[in-house]
Structures are given as structure tokens and as C-alpha cells.
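Let's practice the habit of predicting before peeking. Look at the sequence and jot down your guess about where helices and strands might fall. Then scroll down.
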Amino acid sequence: MKNPNDQSNVTRSVDRACDVLLAFKNEREQLRLGDVAKRTGLDNATVLRIVRTLTARGLLERVGSHQYRSRVRLSAERCYTIGYAAQCTEFAFSREVTASVTWAAENQGINLVCVDNRYSRATAIRNAETLIKRGVNLVMEFQTDEKAAPIISSLYEQAGIPVIAIEIPHPGATFFGADNYKAGLIGGRHLGLAAQEHGGGEADEILLLELSKAGPLPASRLTGILDGVRETAPQLNQARIVRLNGNGQFSRSLEVVRKHLRHTRARRILVGAINDPSALGALLAFREAGRNDTCLVMGQNASLEARAEMRQPGTRLMGSVAYFPERYGPQLIQLALNILEQRKTPPAIFVNHQLVTPQNVDSVYPNDPLLSAASLDSLMLQSV
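Done guessing? Here is the structure:
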């Protein structure tokens, strides 16, 4: 009997055809001819002949004008296990990121191991240790505390696990998230224009709500907001700047703005917030104090809560800069696969941003459910 592993029994053309089929990690992956050539080590002309033959026999399927995908499930298919450390369930933004990542992983046949960092440094570190023990191939880390970042990165580095850092930079990790200064600048410019339109261009104070523990990169959103206001409303260069740490949370921002309003003598105040929960917390503080008409507020993220608020008549939330977390999943999973397949990847990938206002919220997010004031209150309570 001949040894089936004896290479003398292998038909070269069939062997190459198998290599081409094995280049597709699963039946959902779409590849160009150049991608197949790179994975198999075959020259472009050979790949073209084999791909055309396999397509004619129904084993491959042409997608569009330049891509192909497999129509067979191969036992040699490799299934990656990817860890996903979610920021928390407190914010609509992070919940939408999680939903998007979960859907994209399932669509790509990825085994996803999810943990919840609960907006906590200690929990995030414990979760890193858990994911290492689970033997994941890569981790997508979404945690907010910059002091935890080097500890977490060191743990993964020692375990030889590559990391994608979502929104908050981690040493040695590929960054995926906001172009923070640009997003802030977009919001700040609109806030300055709103001050011209609604307040005659006057403001005694510019209140910036920070998220101190996240570090300097997210803080550049607030720098962008301030620069944008001064660009479109230069007369506000002399306005007093006040910085308060709202911790990126609705309840904390509500508390610190409440206290501030008891003491400030400012008659008109512009508010630039690090995110929407902070913006909405500030807005409620002004309403409680009977000073709703003395403020103009700008958020970041264009999250579900903010979009609901912008649909309210007479809102003082002038806008929020969209990050589109519902689109994160496919981009993150593809980035993870690129890293795992050792394809060239940039050190940072920035998401697109768009200003969402009461005037365009229905066109940017036409499929939002009709949110009543009661449902908005319910959303608020989830952030308390």
C-alpha cells in the first residue's frame, strides 16, 4: 500500500487547487486574487487559472468584479478565538459597540469570549488575566483608565497576545477609535455658531466636563471644543474657562454641575462635554436650577440618549459629534483578522465623525425608534 503522505503521490495541480481553497479561512471571507496569491505563495497567473477553474466548478463564487469567496466548508478551516473586554453596560455607546462586535464576530465565524470591565480599573486587570487563561488569540480591549493600560498591556505582552485598544491608547496596542481633537473641533465650531445665534454671541463662561482618568488623548476632545468655539466666536476668547471632572458619567456630571451653579455668577454658559452622558447630566442640572435658557451644550458620541434629547422641542443640546459605534464591529473584526494573518496594519485607525444636531438627527439616524419623554427618562436612569 502506498503512503498517502508520500509527496510522490500528489498531483501538483490538485495540490495547488487545495492551497487556493485553504486560503479562504471560512466561507464568508472575501479575497482578491492578490490576497490569494500572497497567502498561497503562488504567482498571479497560476492563481488566476485555478480560481477561474474552481469558480466554473462551483467551489468558489465571484463577488462583485474583483473578489471571490469559498462555497465549501473545509475541515482545515481555522477558527480564531478573540477576547473582547467591553467598557461597561452603563452607557448606550459601549452597549452599541458590544452589540456590533458580537454580530460581526458571529458573521465571520469567530469564537468571541466577552468580559465586562464595568468601568473599573481592578476589574479590567482581572479580566485581562481571565482572557489570558482562556488562551485567546487576540484581545480587543475597551477600558477607560489610562493607569490600567500599561499593566494590561504588559500582561498581554508576556502572554504573546496582540491587542487592539478601543478609544483609550494602550502601550504596544493597535489603536482603534476617535480622532479626538478633530471630533472636538467639529463640536466646538458648531457650539460657537450656536452662541452667535441663540445668545447674541455672548457667554460669560465656558464649562468643560472632563474624564480625567482617561488621560490626555480623550482630553484633546475638549481642547478641540475650546479651539472650535474661539474660531467661530472669537469674542469669547475672554470668557472664563472652568473645568470639572464629570468622570464621563451622567450622575457624576449632574452632581458637579449642580454644585457649580450654586456659586457661579455667570449669566450665560457654554458647556462642552467629553461625552453625551456628561452633556445630559449638565443639562439636567441647569433645568433643575431653573437656568435652562442660560446654557448651550455640546456632546460627543451622538448616542441614543443624546439623539432622544435632540428630538425634544426647545432642547439646549445644540448637537453631538457622531462616532457611529454601531459600525465598529465589522471594522474591528477585520482589523483583528489582519493582525492574526500578519497582514500589514497601521498603528492607529480613526473612525469617521459627523455632527448631529436637532435639525439633522432624523436624517442621520432615520431608523431610531420614536422616543417619548418617558423613555428618555428611562435611558437617563440607566446612567445613574
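How did you do? Residues 1-7, 371-375, 378-384 have pLDDT under 50 and may be disordered.
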